[in-house]
Design a protein that fits this description.
single chain; alpha+beta; 5-stranded mixed beta sheet; Heat Shock Protein 90
């Protein structure tokens, strides 16, 4: 086509140079030019149609992906809520048992004539300590799943303590100990409740790995520190590590190391998505007989927001 177009122009130039161009030849050249223009117009319309179809297809794929990610996020939230309900049940068991024992003891002491004002004051003090524990656990649970989307500066240590407050009794039952080190003043910028889900997903996976591998001495360690222009939180365990066959894809959706029916493969995927929203990264490596997750976030100063 390019060759034909050039031929028309060359013929027109040649005719002009020879000063022999006449009306008949001009008409011929115009007709040929019009044919090429129509062909170009047809090609442009076809290209425009193909481009429109591709854009529409991309829009549909994008909407489908957004919808799928919303479903995954909802599934992850439900899974986390189930885990936390179990944790709250363990947390409440001890104070409820204590209140029940205190009530029985009060009746026994009353029948023995040992109940006086001093006894009742001490009884009230102990009782309110247990009730406070119940209320604090409930408040923390409600806060954990509050749909708060406002980004703020928050201390990593506060987020860790908040999660451990809800799960400590359950993990104590599984003989899992925690070791917390590092700078407790370091802050991140983001949605704190979303960051707590990262911590919860990691420690719950470690708990399941301890049980599956029947690990005798169970330990999860936290270490927060600043390196260059990044704030890093490492969460490491000694539960045997992640199989080499899946460690490179562990943050993809539906990838799990758990037995069929026991894992959704959503938790770590959503954790990686949360990290990405915070302009951070979440990685993992097998170290010292266990898995070590590293959350690394750029430092965002308060005055720059």
């Amino acid at each position: 086509m390019k060759h034909e177009k050039l031929t028309i122009l060359e013929r027109l130039d040649d005719a002009i140079d020879r000063e022999t161009i006449d009306a008949a030849e001009i008409k011929i050249l115009l007709r040929e030019s019009q044919k090429h223009i129509k062909r170009f117009d047809t090609i442009l319309k076809q290209s425009d149609k193909q481009l429109s179809e591709q854009v529409h297809q991309l829009e549909e794929e994008f909407e489908l992906r957004v919808h799928s990610e919303r479903i995954l996020a909802q599934q992850a939230k439900h899974a986390a809520m189930g885990e936390m309900m179990d944790a709250v049940a363990h947390q409440w068991k001890q104070p409820l048992n204590a209140i029940s024992m205190l009530t029985d003891l009060l009746l026994i002491e009353y029948r023995g004539g040992e109940v006086d004002e001093a006894y009742l004051k001490n009884y009230k003090k102990i009782l309110w300590e247990q009730i406070d524990h119940l209320l604090n656990t409930l408040a923390e649970f409600r806060s954990f799943f509050r749909p708060d989307k406002e980004k703020t500066h928050f201390r990593i240590q506060h987020a860790i303590d908040s999660v451990l407050m809800l799960i400590k009794d359950e993990f104590l039952k599984e003989m899992i100990s925690f070791d917390i080190q590092g700078d407790g003043t370091l802050e991140l910028y983001g949605v704190e409740n979303e960051f707590k889900h990262i911590i919860l997903n990691i420690v719950n996976n470690a708990k399941d790995a301890f049980k599956e591998n029947d690990t005798p001495s169970r330990r999860i360690s936290f270490n927060t520190y600043q390196k260059d222009n990044e704030i890093i939180m490492q969460v490491c365990d000694n539960a045997g590590g992640i199989p080499a066959s899946v460690i490179d894809t562990i943050f993809k959706a539906n990838v799990t190391t758990k037995a069929e029916g026991k894992g959704t493969g959503i938790g770590l995927y959503m954790s990686a998505q949360i990290a990405e929203k915070m302009a951070a990264s979440l990685t993992v490596a097998n170290i010292d007989g266990g898995a070590c997750f590293s959350f690394a976030s750029p430092i965002i100063e308060r005055e720059t927001i």
